[in-house]
Amino acid sequence: MTERPPQRTPNRQLAALISEAGFSNAGLARRVDQLGLEHGLDLRYDKTSVTRWLRGQQPRGTTPALIAEVFTRRLGRRLSAQDLGLDACAPVYAGLEFAASPEEAIDIVGGLWRKDSGSHAELRKIAFTPAGLVVPSRDWLIGRADDRVGRGDHGLNGGRVPTQGRPAVPRQRKEPERGAGARVTSGDISALRSVGELFRALDHAYGGGHARQALVRYLEHEAEPMLRGTYGEQAGRRLFAAAADLTRLAGWTSYDIAAHGLAQRYYVQALRLSQAAGDRAYGSYVLITMSRQAVYLGHGREAVQLARVAQQGVGSSAPPVVQALLHSVEARGHGVLGEVRACTASMVRAERALETARPGDEVPYWARFFDEAQLADEFGHCHRDLQQYRVAAQHAERSLQLRAPGYARSRLFCRVVLATSRLGLGELEQACQLGAEAAQAAGEMRSVRAVEYVRDFERRLEPYRDAAAVRGYRDRVSALS
């Protein structure tokens, strides 16, 4: 006697939500496929797939989370897979949440650090999602600094270890000298700042892949226990500010190795930590970092929106150098979109802002890199994207003349912009010489972006592949490897 397959129970929760949302079966399937594309997934669901789900079949992998996100967007309230009668799985936007409280922010970012420092290679394969930029930037813009961030007798949790949710300290501790609830000192916070400067210098000179994992492990084993320690309000704000800076840097180095979805999550969490710090200006810096990533990935509209949110959030009282930085990044977004007038207007605003800066101005540490060399670099990229090659070459040359040697990766990028501009002007030999210099520099770094800049230049060389200068370029580059 053959055994009958188990009887499935019809999914009445899903049926009710489909009715509430006004979806047809085919319409729901189409929306799930479209959302999958945002995450780099090629899904092929149709109305028959939805019929099977309604009969009780459980979709596999991340699909339950995708279905829940479709309904969340349609109905305007957060729904989980369980709310739809589906098996639980990790939220599709895990790590992109803008936490409701400092405690929740610590939980989310701590989870990211722990997973990233381990063997979770899939975390570095998560796709970038433009839709994941909207809610965090909006919540930051309309939000305000948390009323209380201190932890102790009068701080968060009243100094008590939470009895629900995640444990107050990581389950596996390798450094017993910092126990649960240990008091955070000024020296601890200064150490975080010093570590940030060290890793920043390594990133500029050798690329994000050089010491990224060491930075993430430091965040897991040092920064998270501090955030879960004991501290007053003033120290707490400083601690959250230092943690925000290191988290943004973890995102930046992830972006440099093309772990774009992971970088996006680090940026969102750095934005939330900056709110806990009460540092509105630094939040604007995180947003323009997000804007730079959007530019690199070709999402010009989102890049412009992020830059404008940053400008609106920090207001007109920001130092001229900060204003120049914000406007120059907006210009980059317009350049990617080919919007000549808007790009030019943003460049003019950036230039005028920097001209009003004075040596005695108080400039945040994170904006001090923005000088005439950086402005020329931004302008070179903008004019290259607008195919205004003569002006692009002028700005790129000026940036290379002014830029300090320690900014090796930025110099490489600028050299490629100059090479591309020379190529656009028909100066093939000069272009190939500059391109070969950039290729040699890229070989000495651990930076996917550096490699991609060189590859972009090489794609532009294809129409001239039979020219002697291009053959010479290929010979030089082959010899490097």
UniProtKB/TrEMBL annotation:
It comes from the Bacteria. Residues 151-183 are annotated as: Disordered. This is Regulator. It comes from Streptomyces longisporoflavus. The lineage of its organism: Bacteria, Bacillati, Actinomycetota, Actinomycetes, Kitasatosporales.
